[in-house]
Amino acid sequence: GENVEQHPSTLSVQEGDSAVIKCTYSDSASNYFPWYKQELGKRPQLIIDIRSNVGEKKDQRIAVTLNKTAKHFSLHITETQPEDSAVYFCAASKGDSNYQLIWGAGTKLIIKP
Amino acid sequence: DSGVTQTPKHLITATGQRVTLRCSPRSGDLSVYWYQQSLDQGLQFLIQYYNGEERAKGNILERFSAQQFPDLHSELNLSSLELGDSALYFCASTPGTGERETQYFGPGTRLLVL
Lengths: 113, 114
What we know:
A: mainly beta, six-stranded mixed sheet, about 55% strand, B: seven-stranded mixed sheet
């Protein structure tokens, strides 16, 4: 079945630097790729998503890139700030009738002051 | 606020007991998903309902069951509770039609089994 691998499991960056989290998926039929941010004890919240007909999408300091050929997508956070510290999850969906998301294992992002 | 509500926020109970977690989806959303998140772990998909019918099953234990009612709210029933069932339980909802696959999460129910 579909599998999503996420790396790294933990990422520590200096405040102001960039952070990149990568995910690979196995099912070439996947066409929707969201990223969620989860702060400690809180709900996962969608921060950005991309569909397979687009190669890149930006929203202020956050961007997502998609390489359909290689079946991987990445989250880029620039000018990191302390409030970016959280666990980030990637996911993939085939957009079928279930709209089920296959989740990555998560990346704990630590922003060092 | 995502528009998805969950009750209760916290639940403390003993091993062997049974509890019911409740979820109300966003207005107009037909599909509800349940997830379990143990401490420092990822999101484990349990089960999905669409307009009252079970649509997909994940790693849901036989001791767990769920249903979605005509008003589209959903309940997750956990029975014969074990210490390892202590976790955050989230529900999420999507419209279930069109290209709107985005899942919106509720605030979660934190279950502690003693």
